Amino acid sequence: MRGIERINGLVGPQGSRDVRPDRGGKTGDGSFAQVLEGTTLRFSRHAADRLRRREIPLEEGDLRRVERAVEAAERKGAVQSLVLVGEAALIVNLPTRSVISAFHRARLKDGVFTRIDSAVVVDRVSETEE
Hints:
This protein is α/β, with parallel strands linked by helices. It has helices spanning about 1-5, 30-35, 45-55, 60-75; strands spanning about 25, 30, 40-45, 80-85, 90-95, 100-105, 120. It has one domain (about 1-130). The protein contains 4 helices and 7 strands, in the order αββαβααββββ. The longest helix has 16 residues, at about 60-75. The chain is globular and about 30 Å long.
């Protein structure tokens, strides 16, 4: 599958490497690798490391909501967006669909984000409502 090949370490656009965050176990109902199999999003090494080290929870449904948020921001002409979903704050480069940084919302110090041109707040709804 194209997405999982990128996640497992193939070189992506602009020479960046996409990696699979090693969450040391489960994220939601499956491993992080399983969650990422169905997504078009990629995670930079930096973002993957932050997700792992800071134990930022991301579930399969969250990633689907982030994908929809990315599509909505792209339609508005955005290039780099802050996406708030659940407990995560993600900086996403929209043209490459790459998550380039990740933060735990509860642990943000000053809450200032630079070099973004948009922000999308994603509501969590139950899977049956999607």
